[in-house]
Amino acid sequence: MTARERLPACLAFPLAALLAVAALGGILLPGVYAEAHPRWAAQGVGQDWVDLVLVAPLLSLAAHGVLRGSRVASLVLAGMLAYVLYSMVVYAFFLHFGPLFLVYTAALGLSFYALVAQVCALNAGDVRGWFEADAPTRPAGAVSVLLGVMFGALWLAEIVPALAGATGLRSAREAGLITNPVEVLDLGVVLPAFIVGGLLLLRRRPSGYWLVPTMLAFAVVMDAALVGMTVSVRAKIGAEGAPLAFLIGSAVVTVAVLARLLRSVKGSGRFLQTTIP
Q1: pLDDT per residue over 154-213, tens digit each?
Q2: Rounded Cα gap, residues 13 and 93, in angstroms
């Protein structure tokens, strides 16, 4: 393993620690969400619990697997880093200045550089050669495109009428924000990656073999965070969040497709062990 391949995993360990600190601070320190809209604050606490209990440990586990030579861990780590970067952009730019500002800033920087390094390492390698010849590329590619199109249509269904009627975004008003950062990040960056990656994998292009697993891993963790947010919103302020059945169903389907795709990685049965050459 080269230094370039080890770098993202080495950065992931302090990133996991920062994420755990940020999550624990959001749960325990009243000042973190003191100036936030109640709905936004409730969502933040829900995501903090998911980050603390699930994401930080899984990030460390994936990094450990990468250092042991696991190909599956390399693909999972890319998705985890994408999720942390996405989340830290929202936390750093759309929360009021508070006691965790430097933690969010450091986590944003670490996740950015780690993700860039991981993408460069994957793109430079023969990731297509990691997979068996009968890898389920068509189902995985189709699901990736479907997720991108489906959520794009969902956001545009709110945005287009708001633009036509000059009424502003309801989701932004409900969270006390001037705009919806999730829609910005999704429409500008995330959903195109789902669609492009899916199309590349359907055509068996090399980049599709790392981009689709990355985005599907991102989707699984994001679905878990959205479930945490929805449960927290309902528990803390008694408001309706996203439909839980839809989120859970989306997570189950994505997990199943991702697991099937990763099982076709050569040596995938040894997640934390050194893979075959």
Answers
A1: 999 989 988 888 777 777 777 777 788 889 999 999 999 999 999 999 999 999 999 999
A2: 24
User: Is the residue at 275 inside a domain?
Assistant: no
Quote the domain boundaries for residue 45.
3-125+135-263
Is residue 102 one of the residues assigned to a domain?
yes
This prediction's pTM? 0.92
* 105-163 pLDDT per residue, tens: 999 999 999 999 999 999 998 999 999 999 999 999 999 999 999 999 999 998 998 88
Q: How many distinct structural domains can be found in the chain?
A: 1
Q: Considering the domain boundaries, does residue 206 fall inside one?
A: yes
Would residue 130 count as lying in a domain?
no
Cβ(76)–Cβ(268) below 8 Å: no
